[in-house]
Structures are given as structure tokens and as C-alpha cells.
Amino acid sequence: MSSFRLGVIGALFLSVASSVSIVICNKALMSNLGFPFATTLTSWHLIVTFCTLHAAQRFHLFESKSIDMKTVMLFGILNGVSIGLLNLSLGFNSIGFYQMTKLAIIPFTVLLETLFLKKQFSQKIKLSLLVLLGGVGIASVTDLQLNFVGTVLSLLAIMTTCVGQILTNTIQKRLNVSSTQLLYQSAPFQAAILFVSGPFVDHFLTKKNVFAYKYSSIVSHVHGHRQDLAGHISGARTPQNLPCSCLRVYFAA
């Protein structure tokens, strides 16, 4: 097996393992340890993501490419909102429903591409997506933790993430940039947007103040472990410029 394939397999395994672990850490923080500030949490994750990618760039693991400010800001705002909504969805829903939300992104992205970009998909793909939607529907109906706020957040997350996926693909093709290069340029904007808006959004949804939160040793430990995983997820995208649109955890991850 070539070194390229080994690198791809290794990066995919690291990304998936880190993504699953970080979802568990997020849910533990928000549901079990009493830290419900999902938007603020996401901003910290994105700061670590940028620092990790900056270090990777300095070690020449990928080449930085200049992207016009308008494109970076548009992508950063949309992507930041999408990631924030996904983490809020995790905070207000069960892990099972959250995973169903992420799965639902796939067929709805295909639907948008069919309606607005006139893309054609084979019957096999359409049938597979129909089965997937059926499973999402059954899981949603039988979820005992289903609630109105969580459902609304999940729907908003699906819509913004679908548009973000399509925008990511469009920008990559138009500017001939990799997902890693795009993420490196936009991560500071995403982090800044969520860092500023996070305390207000979290207070509105949870009626709690992040600045008044008293950290325990276990919460601090889980936070540290979570940020370490954030670095692993970012690092897993850098080898061979793996597409972040496929591995997007979306940091909720």
C-alpha cells in the first residue's frame, strides 16, 4: 500500500475518532457537568483550530493561499453560524437525535443542489437517501428527549450547514483552494463571531451567564481534553489536503 493511501487512512481514522470523542466531551460538558454554553464553547474550539493549523502551516504541512477578504468573511460567518447551531442542537437534544441531524444534512444538500444548481444524481443515490431519510424520521419520532427548542435549532443547523457545504464546494472550485487552506483563512472570523455573540446567545437560550460560571477541576480537565481533540481534528485535515466538507464534524464534532 502506498504512503499516500496510508496517510489518507490514518488521517481519516484520526478525524473520525477525534470527532466521536469530542461529541461525547461536548455532551458531557453540557448535560452532565452543567456547562451549557455551547456557542462560547465552539468559539474556543475554533481558536484552537486556527492555532493548530497555523502551527501546521509553519511546519510546511500545507501551503497558505491568499483568498479575497469578501469570500473569507462570507464563508466565515456562514460556517461559524452553522457550527454554533450544530453545537446548540447537541446541547438541547440527545446524542442520537444530534447524529440524525447531521445525517439529514446529506439528503437536504442533494435536494438543494438538484433544485438550484440543476445537478443530476443517479437512482441508486436517490434510493439510498430515501432510506436514510426514513431512518432519520423514525429515530426522530421515537426520541423521548425531543423538544421544540432543540428541533428548531436542528432545522436551522441543517439549513445553514447545507448552504455552507455548497458554498465550500463552490469556493474551492472557483479559487482552486483546498479545504485546509480555506479553513485556515476563515477560522479567525468564525472564532471572532462566536466569541463575541456566544455569551449573549447562550444567556438567551439557557438563562445563565458564562462569566458567572464557577469552574470545577473536572470541568477544566474535560475542557482541556476537548481542546486537545480539536487540535487532532484540525491536524487530521492537513495531510494531503483532505476535504473538510467530508470530515466536517463540524467542530461539533
Automatic annotation (TrEMBL):
User: Which intervals hold domain Sugar phosphate transporter?
Assistant: 18-195
Q: Which Pfam families match?
A: TPT (PF03151)
Q: Which InterPro entries match?
A: Sugar_P_trans_dom (IPR004853), TPT_transporter (IPR050186)
Membrane topology type: Multi-pass membrane protein
Q: Where in the cell is it found?
A: Membrane
Q: Which UniProt keywords apply?
A: Membrane, Transmembrane, Transmembrane helix
The main location is membrane
- Annotated membrane-spanning segments are 35-56, 72-90, 124-142, 148-167
> What PANTHER family does the record point to?
SOLUTE CARRIER FAMILY 35
**Record's protein name:** Sugar phosphate transporter domain-containing protein
User: Which organism is this entry from?
Assistant: Salix suchowensis
